[in-house]
Amino acid sequence: MTTPTVAIAALAVLVLIALALSLKIITQYERGIVFRLGRLRPVYEPGLHLVVPFLERLVRVDTRVVTLTIPPQEVITEDNVPARVNAVVLFNVTDPVKAVMAVENYAIATSQIAQTTLRSVLGRVDLDTVLAHRSALNADLRDIIEKLTEPWGVEVSVVEIKDVEIPEQMQRAMARGAEAERERRAKIINARGELQASEELRQAADTLSKSPASLQLRYLQTLLELGADQNSTVVFPLPMDIIGPLLERFGPQAALSDADDDEGDE
């Protein structure tokens, strides 16, 4: 093989290698930021692009939603209760140029901003608010973090407080408070029930006092209920206004009958 042939073959190999190194594929969820001799070029959209080696540098920016877990943060609430709180942040890049040009590492910067904001916001509220109003706190955290990361081309979609750890002594105190609150509510419910029952009994007594016939019917109904069991013995107590006249009428006759029986026996 002659020298010119070898040179041409070597040159062809170099061209193929350079071409292979120059061809770049940008996927659908990426955007390409290209610098040519240090100067910013237009954003590369998804597809096949040619990047000249040694003259151009390609920076890929992922535009998908990123899940950022904030490690547990030591927080002292407004009522001086120490707590450990962690959270999760969902964000994505909306402006690839700003994400590269405005900040060195947008992911690390967003994480740091989220941590400091979490400590700051929770330090301005009491423990009850942290435990009972998480939705409002999540919205406040998202608004604050998004306002700080917007110049970087980063949009924060979700901020969610995950776990709130408090000292064991505080947990026991909260459990005692919750038990006392449940007992208080139970007593109030029982008192209201007794008040309602007494009011209904008073109304029933007023109704029966105005209608003697209703009272007698209720009396007979009670006797029937008592005699429902076949093995039970029912004593019918009668009012004296009914028994008195009967005794006056039949009492002497009963006495005479007893006397006649005694004479017959003699």
Biggest sheet: strands side by side, in what order?
A: 3-2-5
Uncertain residue segments: none
Mean pLDDT: 80
Radius of gyration using CA atoms only? 47 Å
Count every beta strand, where a strand is a DSSP E run of 2 or more residues: 8
Distance between the termini: 170 Å
The CATH architecture assignment of the largest domain turns out to be 2-Layer Sandwich
Oligomer: single chain
**Shape call:** elongated
Mind summarizing the main beta sheet?
3 strands, antiparallel
- Summarize the helix and strand pattern as letters: HEEEEEEEHHHHEHHH
When the domains are counted, the total is: 3
How would you characterize the overall build of this protein?
The structure is a single chain. The longest helix is centred in the last third of the chain and has 43 residues. The protein folds into 3 domains: 59 residues, no CATH class; 101 residues, Tetrahydropterin Synthase, Chain A (2-Layer Sandwich), CATH 3.30.479.30; 40 residues. The chain is elongated and about 160 Å long. The mean pLDDT is 80. A 3-stranded antiparallel beta sheet has the order 3-2-5. A 3-stranded antiparallel beta sheet has the order 6-7-8. Helix content is 56%, strand content 22%. The N and C termini lie far apart (170 Å). It is α+β, with helices and mostly antiparallel strands and 266 residues long.
